[in-house]
Design a protein that fits this description.
The chain has one domain: DD-peptidase/beta-lactamase superfamily (Beta-lactamase), CATH 3.40.710. The strands form two sheets. It has an eight-stranded antiparallel β-sheet. Strands 3-5-4 form a three-stranded antiparallel β-sheet. Helices cover 32% and strands 19% of the residues. With 292 residues, the protein is an alpha+beta fold.
């Protein structure tokens, strides 16, 4: 097992182990998608709490996993197809298999972690902007924050040189909301500059960090009060600090990126493990952020 780490403070890398080794960001990609969506809210192109045209839920509910949308990770056939190296299903086939038109609960009344919900956010942004997700993230997030080496991988060839742990032959198209890849240091810088900077106005950053209590529905969270904000896992840790970021994992590896938000100086810790252990990588990132 290999472990990479990076620690950022005030928008700069303090220390790292891994250099420019690219890794899959897995569900940390959700934080970037949420931030990009909030730039559209900032610019008055979409409202956070208005129902999306033709849908019974709002953008906030999608970003917070409270829209009642199904989750494809619950499908055994999805995991079999990935393990068998099958080509990804079309979006239409995926939505049919998960019965995406059938809500699991009334929007806003419960919590269900949903990759499909973030696929809906991706499609909403692409339709609204008239550009692919890669361009949206580059122009709305990475260029303003000076993040130079993060990109969306869409085909297996784009994972050449990416540390995939024990996995080989993975097709990034199986991550339907999009899979960012890049050095771990860039993930740490992105979160540190996003939450510590001025890309989003103060009120929208506050909305990102305003979490819904999820109790034990996100397993292995080492927090006293686990919450989910807008594209952010967040809450109090036993040391009394407020942490925000995201954990992610896929075949062969795990990643976690978290920022210690309510202490000075604020710090961001990122960790990557070449094995599937979300609990271990999450604890490592939080410890780096907390200086433990």
């Amino acid at each position: 097992m290999s472990e990479l780490f990076a620690v950022a403070e005030d928008g700069a890398i303090m220390r790292e182990n891994g250099g420019q080794t690219a890794v899959p960001w897995w569900s940390f990609t959700k934080t970037a998608i949420a931030a990009a969506a909030l730039t559209l809210v900032r610019d008055g192109k979409v409202e956070l709490d208005a129902r999306i045209a033709g849908k019974p839920f709002t953008l906030r509910q999608l970003l917070q996993h409270r829209a009642g949308v199904a989750e494809y990770g619950a499908l055994p056939e999805y995991h079999r197809a990935v393990a068998d190296r099958e080509p990804p299903w079309s979006v239409a086939e995926l939505l049919s298999r998960v019965e995406a038109d059938r809500l699991r609960f009334t929007p806003g009344s419960n919590f269900l972690y949903s990759n499909v919900g973030y696929l809906f956010v991706r499609r909403l942004m692409e339709d609204m902007v008239g550009a692919p997700l890669a361009s949206i993230l580059r122009e709305r997030l990475f260029q303003p924050l000076s993040i130079h080496d993060a990109s969306i991988a869409e085909m297996p060839a784009e994972l050449a040189g990416v540390e995939m742990g024990s996995e080989s032959g993975y097709h990034p198209g199986w991550v339907y909301h999009g899979l960012l890849v890049g050095p771990l240091s860039q993930a740490a810088l992105f979160l540190d500059r996003l939450l510590g900077g001025t890309l989003l106005p103060t009120e929208l950053l506050a909305q990102m960090l305003n979490g819904h209590r999820v109790d034990n529905r996100l397993p292995q969270l080492p927090w006293q009060e686990p919450q989910y904000g807008l594209g952010l896992m967040c809450g109090q840790i036993p040391e009394g600090a407020f942490i925000a970021g995201h954990t992610g994992g896929g075949p062969g590896s795990s990643i976690a990126v978290y920022r210690l938000n309510d202490r000075r100086p604020s710090r961001t810790g990122a960790a990557f493990l070449s094995q599937e252990d979300s609990g271990a990588v999450e604890r490592a990132a939080i410890q780096y952020a907390a200086g433990m």
